[in-house]
């Protein structure tokens, strides 16, 4: 029975293509929002900002909506879906299990709690899954069958306190060094590959990102208290977006998505293309929400639900 239920969810997990975000863009333009002013900067560290306006859900025909497609029981404390439709589940007994889009069991990692409480899992590259243990400043990399590739103690890389990590485009990984207020890129051997300027000198404020996204030639740092900071791949600051309180940050085709209050939020930097779409469920009741290209997944009350963007 468990296998059948997993198969049901993974069938719809594996069909994540074919919906364009053009409807988001067209609807945002129809809403008549003012264009956010955008000031760029060079990698020398001079700051810029973009102060977006606020648009409500536009009325009329063609308004995008989220439709509940599937809802199945799932005993999990956390989950994630990669871009191939593979499902990663943290079970109540602290196993990490991976299932393919066809419902087959691919692998299991039984040492989830060996390094403390798991803080983050990054499945942006199915061939190199990252696990971050903040309490012990440890990063694990797993292969596509959840076998260990490497373990890095960030303290050996002179990073004593880090807030978040993410895989980089070149198969290294980004980490935000809280103590030194710097964005750093770390290699597979724990060596420092790149270090940004001191954020305290760049911004004159305490920046505390909770998420890093590497996508479309840019690195996005999400600080819910201050906004979204955009950098190039060399650590050069480009622009700050003054959206506060965003969680679940994702970027598709240079469009930024996130959860803002009880809305699905979308914005394309430097344009009028902004949308706030009311969610058909309560965010406070959700254990985890993951935005995907054509919708989102919600883990809540022992159920995994998939909402498709129409």
Commentary on this structure:
The protein is mainly beta and 310 residues long. The chain has a single domain (2-53, 60-267, 279-290), classed as Lipocalin (Beta Barrel). It has three helices and 24 strands. A four-stranded antiparallel sheet has the order 1-24-23-22, with helices on one face. A four-stranded antiparallel sheet has the order 2-3-4-5, with helices on one face. It has a four-stranded antiparallel sheet with strand order 6-7-8-9, with no helix packed on it. The chain is globular. It starts with a helix and ends with a strand. The model is unreliable at 1-61 (pLDDT under 50).
The radius of gyration over CA amounts to 19 Å
Strand order of the largest sheet: 1-24-23-22
CATH structural fold name: Lipocalin
CATH architecture, by name, is Beta Barrel
Helical run tally? 3
Q: What is the succession of H and E elements?
A: HHEEEEEEEEEEEEEHEEEEEEEEEEE
CATH class group: Mainly Beta
Averaged pLDDT, please? 83
Count up the domains: 1
Name the structural class: mainly beta
| Biggest beta-sheet profile | 4 strands, antiparallel
Beta-strand portion reads: 35-45%
Distance between the termini: 31 Å
Q: Would you count the extended β strands for me?
A: 24
Share of residues in helices:
under 10%
């Amino acid at each position: 029975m468990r296998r059948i239920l997993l198969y049901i969810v993974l069938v719809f997990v594996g069909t994540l293509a074919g919906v364009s975000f053009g409807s988001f863009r067209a609807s945002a333009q129809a809403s008549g929002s003012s264009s956010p002013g955008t000031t760029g900067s060079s990698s020398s560290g001079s700051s810029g900002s973009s102060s977006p306006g606020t648009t409500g859900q536009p009325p009329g025909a063609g308004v995008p909506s989220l439709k509940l497609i599937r809802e199945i029981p799932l005993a999990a404390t956390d989950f994630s879906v990669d871009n191939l439709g593979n499902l990663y589940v943290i079970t109540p007994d602290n196993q990490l299990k991976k299932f393919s889009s066809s419902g087959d069991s691919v692998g299991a990692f039984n040492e989830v709690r060996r390094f403390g409480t798991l803080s983050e899992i990054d499945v942006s590259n199915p061939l190199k899954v990252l696990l971050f243990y903040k309490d012990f400043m440890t990063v694990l990399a797993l292969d596509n069958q959840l076998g260990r590739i490497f373990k890095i103690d960030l303290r050996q890389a002179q990073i004593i306190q880090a807030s978040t990590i993410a895989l980089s485009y070149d198969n290294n990984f980004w980490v935000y060094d809280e103590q030194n207020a710097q964005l750093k890129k770390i290699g597979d051997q724990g060596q420092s590959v790149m270090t940004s300027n001191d954020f305290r000198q760049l911004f004159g404020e305490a920046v505390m990102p909770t998420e890093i996204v590497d996508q479309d030639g840019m690195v996005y740092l999400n600080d819910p208290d201050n906004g979204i900071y955009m950098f190039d791949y060399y650590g050069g600051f480009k622009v700050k977006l003054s959206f506060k309180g965003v969680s679940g940050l994702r970027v598709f085709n240079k469009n930024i998505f996130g959860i803002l209050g009880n809305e699905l939020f979308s914005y394309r930097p430097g344009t009028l293309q902004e949308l706030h779409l009311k969610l058909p469920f309560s965010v406070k009741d959700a254990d985890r929400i993951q935005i995907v290209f054509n919708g989102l997944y919600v883990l809540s009350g022992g159920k995994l639900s998939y909402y498709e963007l129409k």
